[in-house]
Structure formats: structure tokens, C-alpha cells
Amino acid sequence: MSTNAIAFLNSENPELSIEQQLQLFNAIESGLPLVAQPYLALAEEIGVSEEQVIAMITDWQQQGLIRRFGLVIRHRKLGYVANAMVVWDVEDEQVDAIAEILAEQKVVTLCYRRPRVLPHWPYNLFCMVHGKNRDQVEAQLAQICQHSELKSLSKKLLFSNKAYKQRGGRYQHQLAT
Amino acid sequence: MDALDRKILNRTQLGIPVSDQPFADIANELGCDEQQVIDKLQTMLDDGLLTRFGPMFDAASLGGAFTLSAMIVPEERFGEVNDIVNAFSQVAHNYKRQHTLNMWFVVACESQQEIQTVIADIEQQSGLQVFDFPKQEEFYVGLYLPV
Q1: Rounded Cα distance, B56 and A171, in Å
Q2: Are residues A56 and A91 located together in one domain of the fold?
Q3: Range of the domain at A97
Q4: Binding-face residues of A in 67-126 toward B, CB within 8 A
Q5: Backbone angles phi, psi at B109, to 5 degrees
Q6: What digits encode the pLDDT tens for the residues A37-85?
Q7: Element (H, E) at A162
Q8: What's the CATH code, domain B65-133?
Q9: Is residue A99 located within the same domain as residue A42?
């Protein structure tokens, strides 16, 4: 655990000691136990109550240490074999508004602001669109672009020809590209 | 995969309740029983359709440093440069894409300094420039891929 994450541990928490918070963090880092009462199972493991575990996890969600509770699917195994990076050239002061529209689209799976690298790369807003095939991805993008704010933007669609290394490194589960 | 597998997968992608019996909550919504939800999720994990189940941590909060990098690789050198890049354990998600910038990968390290070292090493070993696209802002998107 890094020093950044340790900053989330709260020494003034009246419920769980620092050691117990650390134990809980380590216990859920590899995933949630698949049993009927997973939070109770965690509570018993570290010797606190189920309510305390639920309160701590809820707290971590509110602080942003936990982004979401869910699952990571192997999208290629489930038929999502077409993945496109869609990049946009957006005026700097418009980026937040445009990103908000993109983030609302169901087919957009990631959305980041990144620097332009001129002259090769005029685009500053990056998103990912996943689909079962290229036609579907193109159709989904065309539909997104019906939106009046997006219509006139300069953009580029970059399909991946091949995944040379889909995963790797200790942060693999964090990078849902 | 049967119809119930799909329903479970689609529902759990939207999040798992933080409650005393989260799988019973999901079962009630879907009209099946708790043990079916647990068993089917376990089978999907065992089969490798799911790689992880539970809390997703904010990678940056955990202290990692990340960047997206791209290179302009001459077609005839693609395989060779690809081997150089993939040999770095810090490289993840390397894709060939249709653009002048045709090789795109994520560099995930412990620190910003390590990222700069990895990029410099790749440049030195390949003789090619690495363009760096660090994240400046992330916009929250609820990842949802219905099956």
C-alpha cells in the first residue's frame, strides 16, 4: 500500500482502528468474497461488526478511494472485439461541456483530457468506444455525432488492428481500456 | 452463457450493493435465487469471463503513475519495436492503431520519475521518439457493456 492510500486511513475514525482499516483494505483489494453475506465474512476476518465494515466501505466510496463496486469483464471474451479510440479537437474552454455529453453516452467507456502534440496530433479529448464489430462501432459513433454540440467538431476514429499486449503489470485491473 | 448469466452480468456491471445480503438483493431484482447469482458469478470468474469482482480502486489514489504513449513506427520495423516495448513490465495495453502514430500503449509505474525513465529507455533502444499523452483530467463514465 502506498503512502497516498494510507492518507485515506483515518486515525480519528471512532469505529475501526488504523490496523483494522488496513486489514479491511488488504482483504478487499483482491476482490469481494462470493458468499451470501460478504461484508459479514470480511467483518469476522478482521474482528469487527458487519455494520462497521459497511460504514467504512461506504466512507471509502464517498472519498473516492473506491471508484465503484462492480466487476471487470474480459470484454474480448464476451464478443466486444472492436475497440476504437475516438479523439476530438475541442477548444480548451469547451472541453468540460463536451466531455460531459460524451460521458453520458452509453457506448463511451472512458473519457480523458490529454495534451495535443502538434503537428502530429491536434486532439485533446480521448474516449473509447467498444462494440462487437467495426460496423457497430461506426454506427454508434455516427449516432453520438447527431448531438448538436458534437456535429461540427473535428474528430478521428482509430480502430485497433491488433492487441499486442492486452494486459500486464500490477495495475492491470485498474485499466479497463 | 444462458439468459440468466446475461442478466446477472448486465446487472452486476452497474454495481454491487453494499448491504448485508447483496446477492439476495440482486436475485430479488432479477427474479432468481441468491445461490444462483453466487454460483453463476463464481463460474464466470472460474471461466475467465470476469477477471475481478468487488471494489475498483482509484489507481491514482493508490499512488500509481500512468501515461498513454504513442510512437510512429515504420511498418517494416513494427515487430521489432513491438518486442522492445512489450519487454518492459511497466507497459500494458499495447495496440496497433491506424494512424501515423500507429503504436499506442499505457505505461504504468510507481512514480512519474519511473515513467520518464521507461520512456527514455524505449527511445534509446528503438531509436524512435515516444510521444507522451498524460491524463490531464478524467471524466467519469460508468463502464457498461451489455451482453
Answers
A1: 11
A2: no
A3: 82-159
A4: 67-75, 77-80, 83, 85, 95, 99-100, 102-103, 106, 108-115, 117, 120-121, 126
A5: -135, 175
A6: 999 999 999 999 999 999 999 988 888 888 778 787 887 788 888 888 9
A7: strand A154-165
A8: 3.30.70.3460
A9: no
